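Task 17 of the worksheet. Students: predict the tertiary structure of the chain below and write it out as structure tokens. Keep your answer in the requested format; marks are given for formatting as well as content.
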Amino acid sequence: MYEQINKLKVNRSRTSSSSIQRSMRKENINTKALREKGSFPSITQRLSKEDVKVSLKGEGSLFTNGMKLSAFTNTALGEEHFIKHGAEFNEVDTKQQYIKKAQSFGNQISKEYVEATINNTNIRFDPNNNFMLIASGKKILTFYVWNPIFSKDPVAYAIYYTITHNQRTPIRELPEDILVKLKDKGIDLFSTERDFVDAELRKGISIDKIMDLSGAPFEFIIERDFIRDKKYGDMRRALYKENNEGERLIYEGNNINLTEPNEDFYKDAKEFLENV
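Model answer:
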């Protein structure tokens, strides 16, 4: 998709502000051209206010008869998510146990959950144990224990991911009444997008890949990248090296895990740099 885009190689030591601005303008022109052709992003359908529903804890379930889940949308997806999330649950040792636990959670009826529906995608979160279930109709998409390193708000993150990654709709193209409806429920998609972009930048994901995943504007991602550099200064740059083409490569030594950063990531990185 992005072969037509002139990628910006971000090099803090060699790239001037004016050259970055010229690159941004050039990329924005190409991005606009791709969007007008309908290939960026691949929006499957437009959401309306009626497609989006949120029920907070104590308000009553959106699934008054339970979610009546069958299984994962396909066998491979079930295997993938069991490998990824099965160990997060107690007494889950097999894929079958993982699926059964997801079905049991989905079929419960309670006012204690936070729930949402985005078109045909159903979301349920239990704030008591951080269980998160996402399904497409009666088919399970994923089931996991929420980890706060992704975002401050688990339900906002699930809604954001569903709209941008699954529905292929950038949040800036949502109708205003949807944004207002979500805001009234305490769901701030723009704050969640900041969390998402920051996390992807921490992992060293390229700017064009983040654009492809989220539909976030190029200028916004670059701004978040600059803010991170300004905040963490030389420490962050020291954790990166560049190959001969100027592309950033993550430094993976000294037991600093940059692919799965946690809340102590920068503290650990700073301690490392102070001792080299």
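Marker's comment: The chain has two domains: 2-40+219-274, 49-184. The beta strands are 52-55, 114-118, 121-126, 131-136, 139-145, 240-242, 248-250.
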